[in-house]
Amino acid sequence: xxxLTKLAYYSTVQHKVARVRSFDHSGKDIENxxxxxxxxxxxxxxxxxxxxxxxxxxxxxxxxIKDHLxxxxxxxxxxxxxxxxxFKDLIEKKLGLKVDKEDVMTCLIKGCNFVLRNIPHEVFAYxxxxxxxFRFQTNHPNIFPYLLxxxxxxxxIVKVETEDKFEWIGGSxxxxxxxxxxxxxxxxxxKFDELLQLASKGQHTNVDMLVKDVYGGAYQTLGLSxxxxxxxxxxxxxxxxxxxxxxxxxxxxxxxSNDIGQLxxxxxxxHNLDKIYFGGFFIRGHPVTMRTITYxxxxxxxxxxxxxxLRHEGYLGAIGAFLKGAEQDxxxxxxxxxxxxxxxxxxxxxxxxxLMQRTRSGTFDMLExxxxxxxxxxxxxxxxxxTYIPDTVDLTxxxxxxxxxxxxxxxxxxxxxxxxxxxxxxSIDAVERAEKFRQKYWxxxxxxxxxxFAYGTLTVRxxxxxxxxxxxxxNFPDPYSKVKQKENGIALKCFQSVIESxxxxxxxxxxxxxxxxxxxxxxxxWGAKAxxxxxxxxxxxxxxxxKSKLQxxxxxxDSYSQWxxxxxEGPPHKCALIFADNSGIDIILGVFPFVRExxxxxxxxxxxxxxxxxLNDVTxxxxxxxxxxxxxxxxxxxxxLREEKLxxxxxxxxxxxxxxxxxxxxxxVLVRERKTDLVIIEGMGRAIHTxxxxxxxxxxxxxxxxxxxxxxxRLGGKIFSVIFKYEVPCK
Length: 731
Hints:
Elements: E1 4-22, E2 36-54, H1 58-68, E3 76-79, H2 83-86, H3 88-95, E4 98-101, H4 104-118, E5 123-126, E6 134-136, E7 146-151, E8 155-160, E9 166-172, H5 176-187, H6 192-201, E10 209-210, H7 211-215, E11 229-231, H8 245-270, E12 275-279, H9 287-301, E13 306-310, H10 316-325, E14 336-338, H11 351-358, E15 363-371, E16 376-377, H12 399-422, H13 430-450, H14 460-473, H15 481-503, H16 507-521, H17 529-537, H18 543-549, E17 557-558, H19 560-569, E18 575-579, H20 585-600, E19 604-609, H21 620-633, H22 635-642, E20 646-650, E21 663-664, H23 665-673, E22 678-682, H24 684-689, E23 699-705, H25 709-714, E24 722-727
Parallel strand pairs: 3-4, 7-12, 12-13, 17-24, 18-19, 18-22, 19-20, 22-23
Antiparallel strand pairs: 1-2, 2-15, 5-6, 5-13, 7-8, 8-9, 10-11, 14-15, 16-21, 23-24
Helix pairs in contact: 4-10, 5-8, 6-8, 8-9, 12-13, 13-14, 15-20, 15-21, 16-18, 16-20, 21-22
């Protein structure tokens, strides 16, 4: 580009993963042996890296490419943008490669489609006076059609209809170059950033003629407010005083932004589009330009069209050029996830901070995307995927909640680092790596205190996910693996006696005992400090102790009577989808007796567990072993497995929370095939931090025990309050 070089490259990353597999127990006494063996293996995954360099550091960028990215098989490097012409000879000479130039607009749109599809909080609207400037939008499952307004030297307006179908529908020669050029003539300031700096301090009303300057107030007949600009630079024709550089820069910025805003608005209306994404070096995260563009669009469209910006706007061309080069291994056939551990977030856009960050070094911004093993899709049972928001509380908005949760994660950090080091007693560098993890996550938390919007909407889920990403980066794939192994073994020994006592109860009594068991199992959550403190200090704390902790009915959220009524009066559900939470007592003594009861009623069950580890949550591979053991003890489970009435699937997630818009495709297919008509979500992460307000097309049960006193207080309860939310969709 004109001032920045953006580099996109693909690498394979070797990292450790925890694997579990059953022992071969043939002819052995298995009474005192662990339930399964845990091994840590190396796995290779794909990662996309995107780095920005300033053009003044182009040599450093090329050195980086030469030292790390070029091998003997590399013959061609894909390039796009004005710099592909300007630096072509330098690149070819320094790297000994042929530069293959790609069309700028094609690359831009390919890149735009990629980030819209793969980064959930990519798009934001700019709000000047709110606590945080950025309002992130939920990704609509269908990203097309949209208008892309690219403001570089001039303005290009492109209508994008599908992955490959787009057309240039208009533009203007009055763009960023005009602002820069006229600004330089007016202020003698040659640098673009400095010009914006001047504009941010200026007062345009000293230079511009307003409606009230012409009419003495508002122009009521046409409904024009008195503060509206009637004529840009209008006062300079009559005043004989000198105008300040700041005021002239501000006036110029308003003039050009208003012009572009009106043009974009007219094209959007002409083509019946309500999404306009703005990009190009004129925007580049600058608050003054985003503010004026937003105001202009809002004014000319009367609030019907929204000006939208992209978190990774500067990378679009580079991503597109990379995708063009990688077409034989089409990256679009995979799902990708942002790696929070390796990405620098959206920087604060206050102009003073911004300049400081720009001069820090040659690379000042990075984005990493990890390829996910399986494609992710919406849960087919979401009532309206386009309005679904997984998270219950937006910490970007809620300053009090933000302060509490950031402090909560800071206070838990030493314990997490100790647990990580202790999980690898045979490793000589485990303590050192755990300290590096602690430092990295601490730094992320400090960034988020200053810039809560750095990675999109800040939520408890994003804080948990960032912690998991940082643990993985320092090769702690599953710090709770030994804890889970032990707890699964203990719980299995109690399974038969729990089933016997349930079977001895009358029908109605049994339904309540099953729900109570499910809730008591949910207490066993190492992610909650109130619980981990008890589990650390009282190893004998078990299922019965957990039941005694539960709030007595009526619960904080209590629709148990309606659920019981539904079971009594209604036909059996066709198929239930259950999202399980913790290992050990939770899944074995809480979830499985509940599953068994549903199966006995004639309901098929899909049991969904995490694909990868997070805290002490049960993983899909652990659930296979646990289910096999339970089936050996219980004929109901055994025959259900044999007849495929009980199906175990993975969610596609490695998070303690649950995003129903990013689930494993195989799970979605099964949900459709089996005509699922009941969804059960259990646990604080999946049913309270996320999905508390999720609307589904079928009946749902959301149940959890609140194991955090601040959250309990927020919801009007006490610690160990119970949420039992049975919802039936409106017909």
